[in-house]
## 1
Amino acid sequence: MAEHDHHPEDADPEDADPEDDDGEESEKERLNREFDQLLTELRVALPGVQVLLAFLLTAPFADGFDRIDDDGRRVFLVAVVFAASASILLISPTVHHRLRFRQGAKEQMVLTGNVIALAGLGALGLAIACATYVLGDSAFPDTQARLLGPGALLLALVVWFIVPLGFRRTRPASSRKAEVKPDLF
């Protein structure tokens, strides 16, 4: 993206350098800030994913796991797969950075990391929903407690995706376009 294509409305005013006379950041500064923000956000999500995955990986060895019915075991396995997938996806932007360090591809890494992080957060939401379903179904069999899983998924969809995307629609389309595409395949 050329310097003259920078949109000031994309910049976060809190991130502006007070020493900078015009208040605008360079393209390099913007990319560094965006990548730092992505990594910081991943640092927030990763501990939760790792704790959930660790719990799920040890649960089959706990007393009482054998009381979970066949449907619950299938959903439990799906929860493990989603939690493992979320962990892998949320760690991957860091791996990309290490492998592509100093290749001049920071904008591509930011865009690709964003897509992968969103996929990881989606997998996390599904893992939480599946684990919550199994908990509700196992702790309170033959009740509506199993609906806690779909309820958790609905909550994650609303607060993680629908609300933020609603704000995104209020910005002009011209300020949302990027010339560089995510490098997924």
## 2
Amino acid sequence: MSRTGILATTVLAAGLLAMPVANAQGPSPSGPSTTTDKPTTGDKPATGPTTGKSKKSADIPDGKLDAAAAAVKRVLTLKDTYEQKLARAPDNEKEGVIQEANNAVTKAVTDQGLSLEEFNDIMEVAENDPVVREKLVKRMK
């Protein structure tokens, strides 16, 4: 996985804790959602990533949520550790610290029995689904 992918994993994990569970309905700056466009798009043909991610929310097994919660805790610890290491590292060593952090994050996730893709998918669902986010946060305590 690329450096950007690992960074995204860490940001998603950190964002999970920063986002209040009660405030997770998503932005609705244009007023109440009257979903008049629902018949236009239709439920069956919509198989894009956004619909697929939100549809996955009910399909995440408890074991995967347990693994993701354990991985998030470890990733957040690593984030703190490697931010400090990166801040102290001379410029010529920063790339090595970043690579080391990427490897550590990958290991933290895969040690829990998840692929990086599974972990990222779960983090995206949790970001958009307050029920899944709440389940993850409870498991992390």
## 3
Amino acid sequence: MPEEGAGAEETVRALWAKSYCPLRPRCRGGPSWHADLLFEVVTRRHEKKRSIVLTTNKAFAEWPTTFPNAACVVALVDRLINRADVVVIDGESYRLHEAEERQRVKATARKKGKDRPVR
């Protein structure tokens, strides 16, 4: 019988690690509070042998800069990679490619606009 409560029948939890900048101490306990919260979610999923899909643009070695002063970072990473399939995607950023293309189009349009004769 599944547990009662939200997500009782959930078999996979998807998480997005917002790691493009360090978390700022805006609410509650700041960055270490965020790490503690993520640690709690990961620990509960780990204990019940439930799946987690997590995406991040930071290597695990860089997590201490994302969660500064968080004592649980090592244990958090340990629980995440235990029984895990880690897929590292190393390649050119599709978003970067699109942004560069937009810049080229804008520059070309500006240049054409300057070449027009003034009436």
## 4
Amino acid sequence: MSSALELRAFASGDGHDVSVAVPRRGTGWYDGGMAEHYTLRLATGMRERLTERARRAGLAERTLAQRYLEEGLRHDAHPLIQFLDGPSGRRASLIGRGLDVWEVIATLRDNDRSTAETAQYLEVSPGLVEAAVSYYGEYRDEIDEEIQLNEAEYERGLTAAARGAQALRA
């Protein structure tokens, strides 16, 4: 990803050290930056479970392990947020409620940013709305993108419904 060069030293066959400039390469994760190498030991049986879960999810083990670490760290910082797969992909949602964070934030905006009105409308506690707001504060770009995608899908649905109604009248 990066075109920066790194100087690496090698021992040549004749006993002399040789320095060579090689391009740096890395695997981006979430922020598109360079990934850091990290090694750890797994408890007995954990690798097999990871391998099986990755196979079923159609992901590389490394990718799934990185996702688990990222989501675990996010969950530690925001304990009322969980991560779920669904038709729109993997997303942050409120534990035990079936509401995605983006839904709470969009509803909050529709209710003049009133936590109490949003909580009442969604039939959740104000604390859960505040948990979504806290998560949004850290991951605003992700949540805003989900809101925009949902709004675009809603508009496509309206257009399709109008075309269908028009077709029925013809």
